[in-house]
């Protein structure tokens, strides 16, 4: 059992709300402990193997749970914006640290090499200078003024465009991406990755989207996003060390890693160490 209150007091995604509300029970893990997610009398409920009841919240298409006394869940205002399609993609299981999964989501440089001819393509491999900050007022990591050429930025895109990005780490195991919306250039698509830490080296990644896309079939939108995450999985499962090093001396960063560096510094400041490597192996 993890007794660290910093870790136990976080909200974590544990199931899709639609599945639980339909009466589909989920036996899973959270922080190394077996839990059961099911439809209770008052809505989704979560219990541990010892019968203890976890705190529960439903938001952004998912059931969230916590072993402790969590603060308010981060907000994504776009989830309530009229006209957006809210898409629950489902879980992608990855044999890696939950923190590695978030870090990979923040990485731009791998687009041309892992998501070739979709999110990136050679010779468009340069990561232009962008800005990263830890916003103390909301206790989040933000990367702004990010630009990258993409052959197919979204399912709705019909050709290559230079895509604008904003990256936001809203919680230790959750990140949100805002990017150019091809059908509505004045708006931004929103893609979240909510990571469920099964253990320190195994996780379920729950992608979620809030998009302006009236033309694509739901199944195609889900398949497109799952394809992206499945391409990432092979890379993540071969990374060493498996846990995310928090000491900046354990891995050599480049300019493209500015967001990762800030994320690691932020985790260390918060004292969130589940899935982290603190010293050299």
Automatic annotation (TrEMBL):
Gene3D superfamilies: Naphthalene 1,2-dioxygenase Alpha Subunit, Chain A, domain 1. This is Vanillate O-demethylase oxygenase-like C-terminal catalytic domain-containing protein. One of its GO terms (molecular function) is oxidoreductase activity. Residues 94-269 form the Vanillate O-demethylase oxygenase-like C-terminal catalytic domain. Keywords: Oxidoreductase. The keyword Oxidoreductase applies. PANTHER family: 3-KETOSTEROID-9-ALPHA-MONOOXYGENASE, OXYGENASE COMPONENT, IRON-SULFUR DOMAIN CONTAINING PROTEIN. The keyword Oxidoreductase applies. It comes from the Bacteria. SUPFAM superfamilies: Bet v1-like. InterPro entries: Cholesterol_7-desaturase, VanA_C_cat.
